[in-house]
Amino acid sequence: MTEAAEPGTLPEPQVRAMFDRIARVYDRMNEVMTVGMHQRWRERAADLAALEPGGRALDVATGTGDLALALERRVAPGGAVVGMDFSEQMLALAREKAQAQAGISFDSGNALELQYDDDEFDAATVGFGARNFSDLRRGLGEMARVVRPGGRVVVLEITTPERPPLSLFFRLWFDRIVPALGRFAGDSDAYKYLPSSVRRFPSAAGLAAELEAVGLTGIRYYVTAGGIIAIHVGTVAR
After folding, report:
1. Nearest to 140, CA basis, from 150, 151, 158, 155
2. What is the pLDDT of residue 190?
3. Which structural domain, as residue segments, surrounds residue 128?
């Protein structure tokens, strides 16, 4: 991702450095910010990937590896999951978590130029990472490219609720409370970036349109947590 980022995004080296800095507090902050619900959402995303034992899956922007681990439980025995991220510090934590899981590996890589072959996987997922793509359509297109025809692409992401009172609470939480938590965690800049990355990300309907634009079919999405979380799934055209 050496090209300039889209308006409203940060350059890739700056985002990578930010995630390297917050790696050690990332899981703890996720627990606090979602009241422990983030793992349930990842499990739902893994279900929507529709994997079977012996399958192969790719988790893009895997972070500390929780979604990749959920996928591995679905392809075992005999399957394989690759988690990929550009933050080496995040990957180090993911590898620690996965020491007992034989069917999982982690690669350093670029979400906009995936180093995998066409049709290599049965599914590709991204959990809370698509909004960090400096070129969203390109990143989604790469995920679709590496999935075989008939396989699935799943995107789990924060979305902005549109109706009060939750929309008012959402603004208070993300504009005031999350940055305050970031200061407590020792990196206020990173947790100021989070609300801005959510605000510029497409709505649930807009993201569905982006998935359609990269050639996926049968696109569905589920909005949960009162309108704060959206899980999209589409199928690679045969």
Report:
1. 155
2. 62
3. 12-158+202-236
Q: Which residue has the tokens 């979305």?
A: 159
Q: Within 49-154, where are the H helices?
A: 66-75, 88-97, 136-145
Q: Are 86 and 115 in contact (CB under 8 A)?
A: no
Q: What letter does residue 203 receive in the DSSP assignment?
A: P
Token pair belonging to 62: 């895997």
What CATH number is given to the structural domain containing 30? 3.40.50.150
Question: What are the angstrom distances between the C-alpha of 233 and each of 1, 98, 228, 230?
Answer: 25, 26, 17, 10
Given this model, what pLDDT does residue 170 score?
Answer: 66
Query: What domain count does the chain have?
Result: 1
Q: Any alpha helices (H) in the chain, and if so which ranges? A: 12-34, 38-48, 66-75, 88-97, 136-145, 166-172, 178-185, 188-199, 204-213
What secondary structure letter does DSSP report for 176?
A: I
Whats the size of the chain, residue-wise?
238
Task: Determine contact, residues 196/131, Cβ cutoff 8 Å.
Answer: no
Ordered mean pLDDT values, 10 residues apiece, the chain (238 residues): 49 82 81 84 97 98 97 96 96 93 93 98 97 94 98 93 66 65 61 71 94 97 89 95
Instruction: Provide the whole-model pTM.
Output: 0.88
